[in-house]
Write the structure tokens for this entry.
Amino acid sequence: MALTLEQYAAYLDTRHDLVWPAPPEEDRVKAKEHLVPLPEVRAVLWNVYGTLLRITGGELWFEHPQEFVMNAVLDKTIQEFKMWASMSRKPGQPAEYMKQLYDSVLIEQRAVPGGTEKYPEVASDRVWEALIKKLFQKDYKFDAGFYGSLNEFSRKVAYFFHASLQGTACYKYAAAALRLIADKGIKQGLLADGQCFTCVQLQRGLAAQDSSLVLDKVLDKGLIFLSYEIRGRKPSERLFRHALTALTQQGLAPHEVLHVGTSIARDLAPARRLGMRTALFARDRTSLQATAEQLKEPASRPDIMVTKLTQIADVLRMKRKG
């Protein structure tokens, strides 16, 4: 039976021939938390990359800014999945030719029918599925017994490629914060730019801090909104409105939802505009995107600012004075 994506990620851990990029160290910013009681909050929606997960560059990339790193990652992917035999024999390195294919598919995938989405998102597994279909034209084959169907295989290639591109690990206290909030009976979900493998990366990061924590036990499956499924990236109106519709169906009003993120423009301002409460996680210079003007402006100013993720649980326990 083919491995699930979770099982495949665990299998890769047993491979001693693979070297993965290390997750980045925190680049702490000088910030003072601003905490006020939020007793009306009944659900917390987390941003993932840069908020729960540390990641090189502060956000998920499709291309590394350094060309030699990007080529090395493409070479690694070509070798891992034995793609070179079904690629063009034109002069040049395999990575150079794969980069041409990859770039052309990215352009195709970013084209939104009708141009209705201002911030279109690309699904990484669809990118790799399109690339694999091109290889099929030259008799490419993969082990379906191990990897599964084409769709499942594409998801595993996408995971491998992105895990090779950027290292990830959870921010300190991420697991503790999720557990504390779950223990209070408050619903939790994700509202984030993310891909088919995002929950796998998050689960693995949380397990490194708390081996007994299971993501499915602390998150409400009906409150997971990732950009690759909605086909819109933050600050996409489509992504946020899709979340609002699902929240309404669960009997949650916008002001009863707290969105936690690190970018005022992409995370908090759209959430605030639609009536949600907002929390700025101001800890890591790599992912924090907030100016002094944004912190003062009523339309974008967060309700609270935290420097430690467990402070989210603290404000939900607070009682208002008087």
User: Anything to note?
Assistant: Strands lie at 43-46, 53-55, 168-170, 187-192, 224-226, 257-261, 277-281, 304-306.
